[in-house]
Design brief:
400 residues; alpha/beta; Nucleotidyltransferase, domain 5; 4 domains; five-stranded mixed β-sheet; 15 helices; Transposase_Znf; Transposase_DDE; Transpos_ISL3; Transposase
Length: 400
């Protein structure tokens, strides 16, 4: 304990009059310096009379592994403009129970650690740390330059278990996450276009997406000049689920009397779906054996490669010829799953041929979605979706 007064640079405008060191906590008593300038905490008007004194307990950064508790005497000033207001303190936010140093340290550390871990490190409640981090994220996002997107990419990612999704919109040129919202319906993504405004929507030239009808219809309604481009990965993935997997299951069922052959077909699932260039030598041998043993699987596998070639057509004329040929082969195959897929794909032809003029895809968003999963795993999930979305937007501010 010290009987004298000590003026330290940590607490500008105050004297330390008492220091008590406990086993886990350091208690410090601070009194205002009479020589310090007294100003209003709202309008910062100076040279004001004291209205009353009050005491407040404030947390500061730990010292030597011990928590620091400040017992501070604060003054309320009689401001002619604002009335009775708390004095302005450089190292303390208005109404705050934490010093600026502690608040900045906790919020900065949230960029690398989970909120719960930061709270445990500083001995704070997790909701307090979350509020501090939300303020930091909001300031970071508001400091970004105004977005003027011309090309967009739209996709969805799993938000919670039980088929709960969120939609994300990316500036395809700067890789900046522009907007995130819960759901994947038209109503869920409409707020983005409303916030973009009529002039912003008219500026959009192209939008890459999967074959999500809600995204498609909303883009066509709000962005009259935009061309929709369907992503190759999503179309081929849909083909794999609805055609190749169906034909493989049917082929395996027809081989119920030949168990070894049936086992080979059943185990060929990933061989049929993977990119041929990614297969190893022994996997190519297995794939060739499966395709030679079943004509239906061979047909849908070849048709998959022809479908992928549509996205690399050099001109619209070449695309149109390849498209008509693919549809004709699908109809002539006599395979129900393939014929049904071709019938469902036919209305989407404009979004596929647009790839010739706009070589876009949602691959950027797929990589971002993987990073989103990492952000989510760091916290073992978020209780507040708005906070989670702020974390994502701040993590992808875009390229300069």
């Amino acid at each position: 304990m010290s009987d004298g007064k000590a003026c330290l640079p940590f607490w500008e405008g105050f004297h330390m009059v008492d220091l008590q060191v406990g086993a886990d906590t350091v208690h410090i008593t601070l009194e205002p310096d009479p020589a310090s300038r007294l100003s209003c905490g709202s309008c910062e008007r100076g040279d004001l009379p004291v209205h009353e004194f009050c005491r407040r307990r404030i947390r500061d950064l730990p010292m030597l592994g011990k928590a620091v508790l400040l017992q501070v005497t604060l003054r309320r000033v009689a401001c002619p403009d604002c009335g009775a207001r708390m004095e302005a303190v450089p190292w303390l936010e208005r109404h705050a129970r934490l010093t600026r140093r502690l608040a900045d340290a906790a919020s900065t550390l949230c960029a690398r650690m989970a909120t719960a871990h930061v709270a445990a490190l500083f001995g704070l409640h997790w909701s307090t740390v979350r509020t501090l981090d939300q303020r930091r994220l909001t300031r970071t996002i508001e400091a970004l330059p105004e977005a003027m997107p011309r090309r967009l990419a739209m996709d969805e990612f799993a938000l919670y278990k039980g088929h709960r999704y969120a939609s994300v919109v990316l500036d395809a040129d700067t890789r900046r996450v522009l907007w995130i919202g819960e759901g994947r319906s038209r109503a869920a993504i409409r707020p983005f276009f409303q916030a973009l405004g009529e002039a912003g929507c008219a500026r959009i030239e192209a939008v890459a997406m999967d074959m999500n009808t809600a995204f498609d219809l909303e883009v066509r309604q709000h962005c009259p000049n935009a061309r929709v481009i369907y992503d190759l990965f999503h179309v081929i993935a849909k083909y794999g689920r609805e055609v190749i997997s169906r034909v493989r299951v049917d082929a395996a069922n027809r081989l119920h009397h030949d168990k070894p052959a049936r086992r080979v077909v059943k185990r060929s699932h990933w061989l049929l779906l993977r990119n041929p260039a990614s297969l190893k030598d022994h996997e190519r041998v297995r794939l060739d054996d499966v395709l030679q043993a079943n004509q239906s699987l061979l047909a849908v596998y070849v048709m998959k490669e022809q479908l992928k070639a549509l996205w690399s057509a050099p001109t619209a004329r070449a695309w149109r010829a390849a498209w008509k040929q693919w549809l004709a082969h699908a109809q002539e195959s006599g395979i129900p799953a393939l014929m049904h897929f071709a019938k469902c794909l036919r209305p989407y032809w404009r979004g596929i041929v647009s790839r010739v003029r706009w070589p876009m895809h949602t691959g950027q968003l797929e990589g971002i979605n993987n990073k989103i999963k990492v952000i989510k795993r760091m916290a073992y999930g978020y209780r507040d979706s708005a906070y989670f979305f702020l974390k994502i937007k701040a993590a992808f501010p875009g390229n300069p």
